[in-house]
Amino acid sequence: MKKLLSVLLILILALTAFAGCGAEKEEAPVELTPIVIGASPTPHAAILAVAKEVLLEQGYDLQITEFSDYVQPNLALDAGDLDANYFQHQPYLDEFNAQNGTDLVTIASVHYEPFGIYPGKTATLDALADGAQVAVPNDTSNEARTLLLLEAQGLIKLKEGVGLVATKFDIIENAKNLEIVEIEAAQLARSLQDVDIAVINGNYAIEAGLNVAEDAIATEDSASVAAQTYANILVVKAGDEEREDLKALAAALLSPEVKAYIEENYAGAVVPMF
After folding, report:
1. What pTM does this model have?
2. How far apart are CA 119 and CA 181, in angstroms?
3. 16 occurs within a structural domain
4. Domain housing 264
5. CB atoms within 10 A of CB 120
6. What contacts 153, CB < 8 A, 6 or more positions away?
């Protein structure tokens, strides 16, 4: 009996030792490096979800925080709560830095969202009555872009050379006496029932279920100044441009996977810039 117990004890010890060796051979789980990024829900967060999969293969965990406005993502980045953000274009960033004393910089240009004019109470531009109301974004850079689009449609004329800093006070001809109604960009789509037409930012149009190719009655030309100027950008704090994790993030956003996703899902409402 003692001999049997001894044999059993030896077997148990051998199995325990074997199991221990097996455990030693198991690979420890890979610890992912987090990257925290702020973004507008549409289309930016959706695009980032594709980049997240690309980054996983490189050992990074992209953590996406969604914002519903254009101010908080830059404030959060400046405060160090984010590593990067992706929601804005360069003119808006320049304006924000100048007004807020921040030092945020671009490390990649990712996509372009054509502005569109959408019908509200009036179905076409030709049908606009005298004094018709036109809703436009109330931030300086996007309002200028809107006014250039209205000018391109022959609805107004701006001062010579005012370009991307135009405001409604730079309108020198307004044959239909259009009333320019400045509204916070995120609220423009909701304003359609109350105005004759509205010029809506691409991301907010998509979020509202509008497609610039199907629903807009006029859009920016792909060769326009706006198309070349208003690419949506990946932004970081100055001094972080050479961080390896952020360079990897930029490369993921400019990857073939992201380009294919944009082209397959947005039907021209979002255009890759790479």
Report:
1. 0.74
2. 15
3. no
4. 33-113+230-272
5. 18
6. 117, 125, 218
